[in-house]
Amino acid sequence: MEHELGTIRKEALAAIQAAADTDTIEEIRIKYLGRKGALTLILRSLGNIPPEERARMGKLSNQYKNEIETAIETRTDELTREGADSLIRGQWIDVTLDCVPPVPREGLGRLHPISRIQYEIEDIFTSMGFEIHDGPETETDHYNFEALNIPKHHPARDMQDTFWTEDGNLLRTHTSAIQVRAMEKVKPPFRVVGPGRVFRYESTDASHENTFYQVEGMMVDREITVAHLIYVMKELLKEIFQRDVSVRLRPGYFPFVEPGFELDINCLICGGNGCSVCKQSGWVELLPCGLVHPNVLRMGGIDPGQWSGFAFGLGLNRLVMMKYGINDIRHFLSGDIRFLKQF
Ligand code: PHE
């Protein structure tokens, strides 16, 4: 029996030491110390052996039992710690990474420069009491032309190259359609701006694109004059360019304004002295505008005898190009990440 006990002890301790996980340890415990375990059976059989042997064997068995139990405990501890360690090593998260520069940021997107300037302009106009209005990109002839004093077969339609849809609608050629929609929704006096994407059937080059962005503006009140128009435009440009700018008006023809103007600003590149950007003139053409034509007011349900207004159409692409010195309008929709990353 003594020999048998020794073998059990040796085998058990070796198995415990070799165990790679706690499940195996539990199997070993059952095999030797469980209710039908090898050592348990020996302890139980002690009653059958002669008393003089019994005391010594009993002591030995208990000693081995303790040894095996201790070995199980120690190895279980080790295995649990190893498991936790490898878990920590494998799933370690550096919670400080997000606040200690330099942090890799490649994955983050950003606003397109057109969206940025649009939001900036919306803020400026909102601060001057303008409401922001919207309209669909596919328009009817009525909203894009008719109600803007451009009847069918009028030669002024040739000013805008248009994508027509098969059902007689069109991709809006300008945000002026939003003026018409606004007049249906709000009663004078009112101030609205309408940003949006517009489309022209153009052949493209460095300064022409078939898809571009505008912000329409319209203010209707009692006795609105060109002075109001100039004031609001100067405020807007001062905010955008963060400095005072001079403006000048030249006559410009648009059927929905009378008088109509092209508004120029002094060249911000050369300060008005003349350079290649302003073609040595010191002025850069920025936006068309004018006083709302009485026919347009009338078609919009507004009495031109009581009310007057101004309107303007600000081209966002041009503005962004001037602000950042971009030399080709086609960059905006190119989807070229190298271009977009600069903003
Ligand atoms: N809608 C005109 C265009 O895109 C611009 C414009 C708007 C002119 C408002 C005058 C007043 O060409």
- The quaternary organization reads as single chain
Number of domains: 2
Which whole number gives the mean pLDDT?
90
* Range of strand content: 15-25%
Q: Give me the side-by-side strand order of the main sheet.
A: 1-4-5-9-8-7-6
What key phrases describe this protein's structure?
single chain; 343 residues; alpha+beta; BirA Bifunctional Protein, domain 2; 2 domains; 7-stranded mixed beta sheet; two-stranded antiparallel sheet; 11 helices; 17% strand; rod-shaped; binds phenylalanine
Structure description:
The chain is α+β, with helices and mostly antiparallel strands and 343 residues long. The protein folds into two domains: 2-99; 113-340, Bira Bifunctional Protein, Domain 2 (BirA Bifunctional Protein, domain 2, 2-Layer Sandwich). 41% of the residues lie in helices and 17% in strands. The protein contains eleven helices and nine strands. It has helices at residues 2-18, 22-33, 38-45, 51-90, 113-127, 141-144, 176-185, 226-241, 294-299, 316-324, 337-340; strands at residues 131-132, 138-139, 170-171, 190-199, 211-221, 247-251, 257-266, 283-292, 308-315. The strands form two sheets. It has a seven-stranded mixed sheet, with helices on both faces. It has a two-stranded antiparallel sheet with strand order 2-3. Helix 1 (2-18) packs antiparallel against helix 2 (22-33), helix 1 packs parallel to helix 4 (51-90) and helix 5 crosses helix 10 (316-324). The longest helix has 40 residues, at 51-90. The site of phenylalanine (PHE) has 11 residues, from strand 7, strand 8 and strand 9. Phenylalanine (PHE) binds at residues 174, 176, 254, 257, 260, 288-290, 311-313.
